[in-house]
Write a structure and sequence with these properties.
The chain has eight helices and 20 strands. With 380 residues, the chain is an alpha+beta fold. It is globular and about 70 Å long.
Length: 380
């Protein structure tokens, strides 16, 4: 068997503190395909961890049966630093409480770091060029001297991801249907993942504006391709963020279902020599993330939703009422918050008290919205 649990100590930023990071490796070291899976980069998002909890025994058993045709590296909870951000009975797992930075933002733009080292080395062989770029990234990581615990964590995780052919980052929304974020050049190649996951939407963007983890490798290969048009440079990694419903949706039955979908995806690709199960129904095709409205409120108040997740709505239709919490009609007046596009409701917020500027829903449409084109696309 190759099933192994590993750990490393992340040296803390304050006296006497360390944090232990755990991960598993499974499958033959010399496998042609390497897979990187991680969950809970936003440490308060647990559905992905539950899915991997149920996937790990299935991979262990497949390993024991000699069925694995790929090498898996799995971080069931990739951000133990965020797990420690617990204060006043509230878990702040989305942001580094020292800096306020979102844990899934400001990941490095790798191409400028390796541009000089790959110059003059690329060949007419696309696979060889991927290997050259990966080696350059590994060398750059080796040269880094992390000064904080989060920098240690990021470099360790990035080393694994940069060597992988498939990189899946498991997240969830607040209250949401399942969906995927990925880069447009990776579709329709990842349509089978969308099918096995059973998503309501696959949202694509080359650059959503925040430097999120799932965009690091596609951006690297895209920039290398643009800089070297005379050399074949395929996308060296199929990378996506998988949004497994909402934060409250961490249950055994759901985790088993999600693990079965992941197992089926890998088995259907021949990466596990096992029955993938019944072929799932086709999920909707990709749509530009710029066609998704992030609906925000222009005043504080209490939300009263008029629509459920998945509801089809039209531009100008009330999505929720905002109940006033101040002014001459405090706690009496309410006014509608209107959809800005035709589409369906992908997500809502669980906390119904909202402040000015808060996002309260995502509405997935089909037409790029003028206010979204070229804009910062994320919610925070």
């Amino acid at each position: 068997m190759t099933f192994q649990l590993h750990h490393t100590n992340l040296i803390g930023d304050t006296p006497g503190t360390t944090t232990k990071l755990y991960w598993y490796t499974i499958g033959p070291d010399d496998a042609e395909t390497r897979i990187h899976l991680q969950a809970a980069l936003h440490a308060d998002e647990q559905p992905g961890t539950m899915a991997l909890h149920h996937l790990l025994p299935r991979l262990r058993d497949a390993d024991a049966a000699g069925q694995l045709r790929a090498h898996f590296t799995i971080f069931p909870s990739v951000n133990p630093l965020g797990l420690g951000n617990y204060t006043l009975r509230h878990h702040i797992g989305r942001y580094d409480i020292e800096t306020g930075i979102n844990y899934n933002r400001r990941w490095p733009d790798l191409y400028p770091q390796v541009a000089d080292s790959i110059a003059g080395k690329l060949t007419g062989d696309g696979r060889a060029n991927i290997a050259i770029i990966r080696a350059a990234v590994a060398a750059w990581i080796d040269m880094q001297q992390p000064r904080t615990a989060i920098q240690q964590l990021r470099l360790l995780v990035l080393r694994s991801a940069a060597a992988a052919d498939i990189v899946l980052d498991l997240h969830c929304d607040d209250d949401s249907l399942k969906h995927i974020f990925t880069s447009p050049e990776l579709m329709p190649g990842l349509q089978d993942l969308a099918d096995w996951m059973g998503v309501a939407a696959t949202l694509t963007a080359e650059d959503s504006g925040g430097g999120s983890f799932d965009e690091v490798l596609p951006t690297l290969y895209r920039k290398a391709r643009l800089a070297h048009p005379d050399h074949p440079i395929p996308s060296g990694a199929e990378t996506a963020t998988l949004e497994y419903r909402g934060r409250a949706d961490s249950f055994d039955a759901i985790g088993e279902e999600d693990a079965a979908g992941l197992f089926g995806f890998f088995a259907a690709r021949g990466l596990i020599a096992a029955d993938p199960g019944a072929r799932p129904a086709s999920a909707p095709g990709p749509t530009p993330f710029e066609a998704t409205e992030v609906l925000r409120v222009d005043a504080p108040g209490l939300l009263a939703y008029r629509v459920e997740l998945g509801a089809r709505v039209q531009k100008g239709q009330p999505i929720a009422d905002l109940i006033a919490m101040d002014g001459s009609e405090a706690y009496m007046a309410r006014r509608p918050i209107l959809a800005g596009t035709d589409g369906f409701v992908l997500s809502r917020v669980m906390g119904k008290y909202v402040v000015r500027g808060a996002s309260i829903a995502k509405i997935v449409g089909t037409e790029v919205l003028p206010t979204r084109a070229g804009a910062y696309l994320l919610e925070d």
